[in-house]
DNA sequence: CTCCATACTTCCGGCATCCGGAACATCCGG
DNA sequence: CCGGATGTTCCGGATGCCGGAAGTATGGAG
């Protein structure tokens, strides 16, 4: 993401005329659309790094555009709106928007908030849902796991646990984090369950379950999914 | 993160009185501090999931508090401020703040923006800063420490001690502070343990344990983690 | 109904860590 | 030189965490 691509969905031409040069002058690539339909189409084809979305579009309700976007993309969305009602802000933010700027706004603030939104997605580009490492293959989209070419069947809980570990991308997952994500809130405290199902995952997915390479235990803290098979 | 812990750093008591019950009523755990010094100390000891920071504190400039926090943590920070100047907003956002709310604000909007900030740490993981200094590498988020490229295994206590030092960011940590943070309140007095475990850290993380460059002892006071390896 | 996979529960042994004490070396200021 | 604070190394014992091996429900498929 060297030159982030920003998509502007905004019907007022005067505002577009202002936004496009402002953003272009900041090493951003800019796309713009004047209607919801056009904007959604562009989002699908170009997959921008960030979307500036006006809520007051002529052809469709802005909230439904946001919902549509969120159905398939997690890219940051910054709302621009003439409506300054708290109700609108809360609705948009809870629908998945990352920020909400009421018109009129200053260029400097807009740029700063864009930087914040882009900062969030810098570190974690979870674009690739397929993970391969040392004979292990995890395809979260298709729910297909395989070890050394052989497909592996996982039970519901085993899969939820694996998913929680994968989402952490190699970082530690706390006992309580895993327990509440897999067994639901209230499951904290039963660290035994974790031990049992980690043992299952190891038995099914490790070459040598007694010396795990991928499913690492962090004593006193939790577990971690190691994705560099190189480390030995 | 089942019940996210939120730290409020705010000097106006009336606002604190309003914020605390508002947040507590939303399944959040709440901590509050009235001064910058107190707030930073609480952040270091409790490591909250989100910080609400007032920029107009009496004892210190809010921006310097933000900078101090950002030196060791990427946990979301939402700024509350009476200043509504664009200049202030841009400065705070670029310094690492995640959102900026100008007073007066509505409770619903604040809660929505808190939800957004917490959502970011869940899905699009933000990484804590990685501290590097003279061959020493400390990644608090992944709990990975390495010295000269070699990964180093730390025990639970060693790690807690190192974490307490890192959060002080080069400032001295007194004996009693470290003891109560690592060994729990009541552990004060056993300066012996400190010597033992500081020795461990030095053995594992210093190039020449007999002449420490990073783990400096401040006689009669405590210890300090030196992060400029340049000083020799 | 029976069979079987899954989920939950319990028990136990191994092992790293941690505690607490002791001894001894070192450094520094008075 | 002396005394205090600090650094380093040993050891035995206690603790707690982890992993493995059971056994016990539950619920669905045949």
TrEMBL record, chains A, B:
Domain OmpR/PhoB-type as annotated: residue spans: 128-227
Transmembrane segments: none
Entry's Gene Ontology molecular function annotations: DNA binding
Alphabetical list of InterPro entries matching this protein: CheY-like_superfamily, OmpR/PhoB-type_DNA-bd, Sig_transdc_resp-reg_receiver, WalR-like, WH-like_DNA-bd_sf
Record carries keyword Ion transport: no
Gene3D superfamilies for this protein: 3.40.50.2300, 6.10.250.690, Winged helix-like DNA-binding domain superfamily/Winged helix DNA-binding domain (1.10.10.10)
Modified residues (4-aspartylphosphate): 54
Annotated DNA-binding residue span(s): 128-227
Residues in coiled coil: none
Record-linked CDD domains: REC_OmpR_KdpE-like, trans_reg_C
Residue ranges of domain Response regulatory in the record: 5-118
Keyword annotations of the record: DNA-binding, Phosphoprotein
Superkingdom field: Bacteria
Protein name listed in UniProt: DNA-binding response regulator
